Structures are given as structure tokens and as C-alpha cells.
Amino acid sequence: MKNIEFIKKKNITFTISLIIVAIALISIATRGLNLGIDFTGGSQLQYKFASDFNEDDIRAIMDDMGLQAKIQKAGENEVLIKTTFLDEDQTTQLRNTLKEKVAPFAEDGIRAETKFYPTIGKELRENAFKAILWAIIAILIYISIRFDFKFAVAAIIALIHDSIITIGVFSVLQRTIDNTMIAALLTLLGYSLNDTIVVSDRIRENIRRMKNVVFGEMVNTSINQSLSRTIHTSLTTLIPVVILLFFAGETLKNFALALFIGVIVGTYSSIFIVSPLITIWNKGKVLK
Fold first, then answer.
1. Which of 49, 68, 109, 248 has its CA 20 to 30 A from that of 194?
2. Checking DSSP bridges between strand 176-177 and strand 34-35, what pairing results, if any?
3. Mean per-residue pLDDT for 257-271?
């Protein structure tokens, strides 16, 4: 197999990453994040009608009540409504209006009526941040023990890179960020770390095996040796993710989208971020 010069292209790949990260940060700063009611507080209502229905009729009802809402089909004759916080009287009024102006409810028509209080939303935001922070700290400690502190710092930079790009895409597309998105981010941290460990493990082995070789050349050889495994693992992971993205219900699509972006970016960063950074920090070193 041809030896690809990954390390020599590090300036180009760093520039590409900086541009994408900058676009993501600008979008987050200007467009903001579309936080779900899990974090902002609100009501989530799921109803099943006895017959088919028109989503526009439901939107018209919500507008008449002065309520902003996201409305989506959640199954056969089922609707999922996410709106601002509704008290019991408002929920009852909405339910009765839907029955009257859209379609009668099925026998088990009230599937769910969930309220997310603003104080709980704040607590969820804080817990989500803590979960990601603790995951990063644990990764830093683990890689420092298994490999080297330089490897750990490079891995954390790659994880931050992956997370910013993934969140940035959600900001650009204004996709909802909810608890499933946080679960996807934590999953991505583990996946990206796995890719990084595969490459780093080969680098560690070659540090012992290869002699009288410049450190950068050894790293490039290590990437090429593990490239096939990295690509095959990523493609295998992407197959079920793509199926979820196109065929899963609406509630899982954000999760699948985050995984799809993260797997691609995580594979990229393990090759074009972690390895070049390790090389830069060992510039000029010759293995003996």
C-alpha cells in the first residue's frame, strides 16, 4: 500500500480545521443554539387521533392560542407538540380544541403530557456540562497513564475540535439540542477516543521498534499502518448511523445526525489533529 504523507500536509489540515471551527463558533455566537424544552422548560404533548390529521390545522390552533410550538408526526395518526409551559387549564383547553377542530382522539389518545419546569431545565444544563467536563478529565487521566501526557493533551484538543464542529453544525441547521444530543456527544467522545487510541497505540509500538528514524516519519508510518483499520471501523459504524438518520423516528434523528457528523470528524481528527500535534511537540527528535 502506498505510504501517504499525512504529516507533511499538517499545515493544510490545520488550516481547514481552524476555518471550520471558526465558522462553527461564529454560528454559535450569532445564531445561537436551539435548545430543547428539556433545557429551557416547556410542555411536551403527544396525542393519537382516531384518523389522519393535518399538521397545519394544529399550527393554526396554536397560533390562535398565542403559543409558539414545534409540531411533528410521531407515528401513525400521532402528533408530538413541543411548546411553552402550559398549566393544567391550558393543556385541557388545547386538548379539547384538538378533538373538536382536528380529529377525535383514539381510545388511548393521550400518549404523554410532560412538563419541564425552567428550574429543572437549568439543572439539566448544568448536569450536561458536568458530564462532558468529567468525561474529558477522565480521558485526560486515562491517556496520560496509558501513553503520555502529550498524547492526552492532543486527544483532548481533538475532542474539543470534534465537539465544537458537531455543535456548530446543529447551530447552523438550527437543529434542537436536547438530552439525546448530549448523549450523542458523550458517545462521540468515546468513539473519537477509540480512534485516537488505535493510532496512538501504533505510534507507541513503533517508538520501541523503529530506530534511527525521525519522529515525524515514524508517526506517518504508524498512521499508514493503522489507516485500513480506522477506515473500516468508521465505515462499519456509519452504516447503522445512516440507517437511523434516514429511517428512524424524528426523536432519534438529532441523535443520529450528531453521531454521523461526529464519526466523520472524529476519524479526521485522530489522523490530522492528534498525530501532527504529537509530531510538532517532538519536532527534530530521532529515535535511537
1. 248
2. parallel
3. 88
